[in-house]
Amino acid sequence: MEAIKKLKPPKTPPKEVEAITKNVEVKKNEFWGWCVLASFLALLVISCGVYTLVKLFPNFLPHNKPGPNRPGPIARNYADALGIAFQFFDVQRSGKLVNNRISWRGDSALRDGSDRNLDLSKGLYDAGDNVKFGFPMAFTATLLSWAILEYGERMAAVEQLGQAQDSLKWITDFLINAHPSPNELYVQVGDPDLDHECWERPEGMSERRPAAQVNASFPGSDVAAEVAAAMASASLVFKKIDPDYSFTLRTNAEELFAFADLYRGAYSVSIPQVKKFYNSTGYGDELLWAASWLYYATRDPSYLKYLTVINGDVFGNWGDPSWFSWDDKHAGTQVLLARMNFLGEKDGISPDENAKLQMYTRMAQATMCTLLPGSPSATSSRTAGGLIWVSEWNALQYSLAATFLAVLYSDYMATSQVQTLFCDGTTFSSKDLRHFAITQVRN
Ligand SMILES: *[C@@H]1O[C@H](CO)[C@@H](O)[C@H](O)[C@H]1NC(C)=O
Ligand SMILES: *[C@@H]1O[C@H](CO)[C@@H](O)[C@H](O)[C@H]1NC(C)=O
């Protein structure tokens, strides 16, 4: 693999945003929701301490390499910050609130979806507005699932696991209802232009709240695959605690993935009005990401085949690392599949499939090397103080998403007793990656 001097900058938000949105505050708000999510995840992973991953993904591939690490003591300041960060998910809730912990929030959007005879009242508002954008909302659910699967025991240790599961279910309940038939998915509720005209509480809003869908004639492989990834990962979270719900999630995920793959197209093309807000620059990454989660959730070898020998070369962007974000899932997919190399059982995997898995793992490794400041391939996208800085658009999202992946990779190394990460002749350890992660959160 060539040395990568600089990760490709992310696709900047479309110019239309600037042209159309007069108010700078509103522009920021479009991307703020994800920012808070990412901060939360970073706090979470750091608060977990070095941790054995042996019992993680309890329902997923068994691991045969128990690691030497045990959870460290709870760091109170991180645990407190995590508890506060979790409130974000409560604050953003739409619908009829249950066990509401936020004194100033009430029921809202109870009739969302009623014009389509659907209950789309749940889910999360984006952040600074009252629109429910399905694409980033589903990505939020996928990452929350991943965090619970890897670090759920540590969340339980600081009494946050129930909260995390409830927050996840508030999103997945919405996603299930948004998928009323095999080739139909509602991807947005609310009219962002109308909504942004008025700064108001969701409890008091009176604008029309149209629901936009993708379907076989107007496809959205990106959004449908992201929702499939959210449902597949959440099906693992709920497998033991609510098997029926888990089954519903899994079957919906499989159906949506088939829809996403068969009717290919970008939702930004099918529903041009989403371009101004969460434009998706491609769907190949989401198809691979969804197939990876479906493989973990079902262990159906066809998903493995799909993401390795069938589509690895087509959508993998080998040799071209990118920043992990709500628009680009390549780096997340690479780390998720590297997990199999580090921890997974690979019985029954053909040599050709394994060769592609190695490609994902090498890409994950290359991404880690770009993050470590002392590596020959270190990215130059950082501030003088060392914070990863890629773009002014919600600047922290890139640093914190990369941090989440770095902590996972570090724990995969530690658990599987892999001592060394090689970066163009320089070597690093799992501790170096963890140290990098801490510098992104604490400084
Ligand atoms: C399919 O989706 C498009 C775009 O959202 C919409 O205009 C159209 O009415 C939908 N088709 C059906 C049959 O609902
Ligand atoms: C928006 O998404 C479309 C479809 O994926 C893509 O072709 C286009 O380049 C994107 N626009 C920007 C500005 O990224």
Description:
The protein is mainly α. The protein has a single domain, classed as Glycosyltransferase (Alpha/alpha barrel). Helix content is 53%, strand content 4%. Strands 1-2-3 form a 3-stranded antiparallel sheet. Strand 4 and strand 5 form a beta hairpin. Helix 4 runs antiparallel to helix 5 and helix 5 crosses helix 7. The longest helix is centred in the first third of the chain and has 24 residues. It is globular. It starts with 14 loop residues before the first helix and ends with a helix. The relative contact order is 0.14. The N terminus is likely disordered. Bound molecules: 2-acetamido-2-deoxy-beta-D-glucopyranose (NAG) (2 copies). The site of one 2-acetamido-2-deoxy-beta-D-glucopyranose has 10 residues, from helix 9.
Topology of this structure?
Blueprint lengths: L14 H6 L3 H24 L28 H16 L40 E2 H24 L3 H17 L6 E6 L2 H5 L14 E5 L5 H17 L5 H20 L4 H4 L4 H4 L5 H15 L2 H10 L1 H4 L14 H14 L7 H21 L24 H20 L5 E3 L2 E3 L1 H13 L1
Helix pairs in contact: 2-3, 2-4, 2-16, 2-17, 4-5, 4-7, 5-7, 7-8, 7-11, 8-11, 11-12, 11-14, 12-15, 14-15, 14-16, 16-17
The protein binds 2-acetamido-2-deoxy-beta-D-glucopyranose (2 copies).
One 2-acetamido-2-deoxy-beta-D-glucopyranose (NAG) binds next to α9.
